[in-house]
Amino acid sequence: MENKSKLLFLQSWYSKVTDIWYPWLKEEVEKKGYTAYFPDIPEMRKDVPDMNKMLKYEVLLVV
Length: 63
Hints:
Layout: E1 6-8, H1 22-31, E2 35-37, H2 51-62
Parallel strand pairs: 1-2
């Protein structure tokens, strides 16, 4: 199998990575040989996320 890209998906506001179509999408992209990451970001389930926490989390994802 050829080496394919890694894909990072971020959840929408007020959702969890187990909601709606995320599990389906993960399965579909993995069938095509990609590595899919769907990190759970609890701050996204708040009315007003703490942006400092969000930025720290995003830095961890990139590194």
